[in-house]
Design a protein that fits this description.
By secondary structure, this protein is mostly helical. The protein has one domain. 78% of the residues lie in helices and 0% in strands. Helix 2 packs across helix 11, helix 4 packs antiparallel against helix 6 and helix 11 packs antiparallel against helix 12. The radius of gyration is 22 Å and the shape is globular. The N and C termini lie close together (8 Å).
Length: 486
């Protein structure tokens, strides 16, 4: 199999392409012409820091929703918004395969120096995303109350959560397209532009949410539904900005809308690469549903504790996802450029950094647990229920950082099936273990975080054989052109 020409030139767009972008107007991103072939640690942090800022903004946004919910209706409102967001996460994680396959293909194409192929991939991914979002949003809107009752929630919680959940499903299309546009730029090597879009969106959302929820400045009180409306408006603004960058060519990737056509072969390949990632997302979501169902009989305070600690888990995930996403970009582009040893070294560096980042996070929360939990609600019933959950989950977060980095690197290489099988195996261990510990031991509801944390510790060990075998470095992501596959 022949390799593309000199790989050292492929991480940076050629000068004529840079001039072409200027001819279309607009100032180019600082990342547009940066050479990504320097030392691995330096390049990882160069690409990772915008992810960390973006992730921090998203986390602040998610926590702000819970804080406003706590002020609006106490811990029951927190439980209600947490239950509604589970279904929103279902919709988002099922479309995860579209983003994953697109990232793998775009990073590979950029590594090969083929900008037109990268643009074609993004446009095909948008076609899939539009179809998927329309179908899922329709289902979610029509079945809001029945879906919430499936979780075994009280009618009071269903009444609180239903308006928020219905509007959240309406906003899934905007959120999905924003995520897809951001992912395409990140895969091309520009995480700075998505960070700017996220900053604008989060400022709008955080500022607008309390206005709509509490009926400030003369508006009607909308409750939890106001937070969902603010999210929808913020995502629309961010998507519009990202599309302006992509169509003007002021970053490392420019979309050529005039050449758009449906490519059924490409769509089929994207589904082939992406379906394991969608199934992986479904596994995680199903696990969260089952854990929530296990917790519900122990009362609203326990469910609120579960909701908050799941947000902490998302915080830990985002902490390592920044370095993991940066690693995925380098791995994909390195494979496209034929630099397989560089790709392999990047995986190890990212796993080590991911573990260190999560260690720092775990220590910070461990030192001030009550101060952290009091951000959401201060009822003694809630604090007593949430404190032991938090302590237990923190024990697995260091290993979780390493496994998240492994996962991001391997999925960007196109090894989505292997990642899915590893996570499916761990899920098949966690769910029955959580049920048994919570029902048949004195741990009661605390058996659930014990099971979850134990599996977080085990999971990175399961990625080691995949790393040693190097199979992930030889996955074909383009079906019909062998020259485009390492």
């Amino acid at each position: 199999m022949s390799l593309p020409r000199d790989p050292a030139d492929r991480a940076t767009p050629p000068p004529d392409r840079a001039e072409h972008a200027h001819s279309h107007g607009g100032r180019r991103s600082a990342y547009a012409d940066r050479d990504l072939t320097s030392g691995i640690p330096r390049t990882l942090w160069f690409l990772a820091w915008p992810h960390y800022v973006e992730s921090s903004l998203q986390i602040v946004d998610q926590f702000a929703d819970l804080v406003w919910a706590g002020i609006f209706g106490g811990f029951r409102a927190i439980a209600g918004i947490g239950a509604a967001q589970q279904y929103a996460n279902v919709a988002f994680t099922l479309r995860r395969g579209i983003d994953t396959s697109m990232r793998a293909m775009v990073s590979r194409a950029i590594g090969m120096g083929d900008q037109s192929l990268a643009s074609h991939v993004v446009l095909q991914a948008m076609s899939l995303a539009f179809t998927y979002s329309a179908v899922l949003a329709t289902i979610g809107i029509l079945l809001t109350e029945p879906l919430l009752r499936v979780l075994g929630l009280s009618e009071d919680l269903v009444a609180l959560a239903a308006p928020y959940m219905r509007i959240h499903f309406i906003g899934q299309t905007a959120a999905g397209f924003q995520a897809l546009a951001a992912s395409s730029l990140q895969a091309a090597g520009d995480p700075l532009t998505p960070m700017k879009a996220t900053f604008a969106a989060r400022c709008i959302k955080i500022g607008l949410s309390p206005v709509l929820m509490f009926g400030l400045v003369g508006l009607p009180v909308m409750g939890l539904a106001g937070a969902a409306i603010a999210t929808l408006m913020a995502n629309l603004v961010a998507f519009a900005y990202l599309m302006s960058v992509l169509t003007r060519g002021t970053s490392r990737l420019r979309l050529n809308l005039r050449d758009y056509r449906i490519d059924w072969a490409m769509l089929k390949q994207m589904v082939k690469v992406g379906w394991p990632a969608s199934l992986h997302g479904a596994e995680l979501t199903l696990g969260t549903f089952l854990f929530g169902a296990f917790v519900a009989p122990f009362g609203d305070a326990a469910y609120a504790a579960f909701t908050v600690t799941k947000r902490v888990e998302q915080l830990a995930s985002q902490g390592s996802a920044g370095i993991g996403s940066a690693a995925g970009t380098i791995v994909g582009q390195s494979i496209g450029a034929g630099k397989l040893e560089r790709a392999k070294q990047t995986v190890l560096w990212s796993a080590a950094y991911g573990a260190l980042v999560n260690l720092a996070l775990a220590l910070a929360i461990l030192l001030f647990p009550d101060a952290f939990l009091s951000l959401f609600a201060r009822e003694p019933e809630f604090l007593d229920a949430a404190r032991p959950w938090l302590y237990i989950m923190l024990t697995g977060y260091v290993a979780f950082g390493a496994s998240t980095s492994f996962m991001s690197s391997f999925t960007s290489a196109g090894a989505t099936l292997s990642v899915m099988l590893i996570n499916l195996t761990t899920m098949l261990i966690t769910v029955p273990l959580a049920f048994l510990l919570s029902r048949f031991t004195p741990l009661n509801e605390l058996g659930i975080p014990v099971a979850m944390s134990a599996v977080l510790i085990i999971r990175p060990m399961m990625y080691v054989p995949l790393y040693l075998s190097e199979r992930s470095l030889h996955v074909r992501v383009f079906a019909h052109d062998p020259a485009r596959n390492a």
